[in-house]
Amino acid sequence: MSAYRIISPWYITGFTEGEGCFAILLTKHKTKRVRKDANLCFEIELRADDRPIIEKIQKRLGCGRIVDLEYERYGWKPHVKFTVRKQRDIFYKVIPFFKHFPLQGKKGKDFKLFCQAAELFKKKEHLTERGITKLEKLREFMNERRPMFG
Length: 150
Fold this sequence. Notes:
The protein has helices at 9-19, 51-61, 87-100, 106-122, 129-139; strands spanning 20-28, 36-47, 65-69, 79-84. By secondary structure, it is of the alpha+beta class. It has a single domain, classed as Roll (Endonuclease I-creI), CATH 3.10.28. It has a 4-stranded antiparallel β-sheet. Helix 3 (87-100) packs across helix 4 and helix 4 (106-122) packs antiparallel against helix 5 (129-139). The radius of gyration is 16 Å and the shape is globular. The N and C termini lie far apart (43 Å).
């Protein structure tokens, strides 16, 4: 079986529920007017021996890149990370994919907030202080910051 055999879109959805991450990245930036840089990111990280799965997901979505990660200093096995950061790919590939093959669990909540953030990016609001504040508020309820109940 080829590593590039087309993978089921529902498999990707389920896999993302367990191993994926939708994130709003906010970092300090000295030269930007608002002193912060904002980016959207979709990632899946696995042990390196599962690289064929990551390659299939990348091929199916038609975007992103795969990065090799070494965690020797932690005593961990090597990992691979599939990451999508290009706005165009997020707007026209990642978001439409997950709208067509929706997430059912808590990652679905993260995805809805991620989509709201993407709308701010499309309107270029992420380049304003008000937009950064909106992104910070959305991010408060995503991923490990997400309240356990509610």
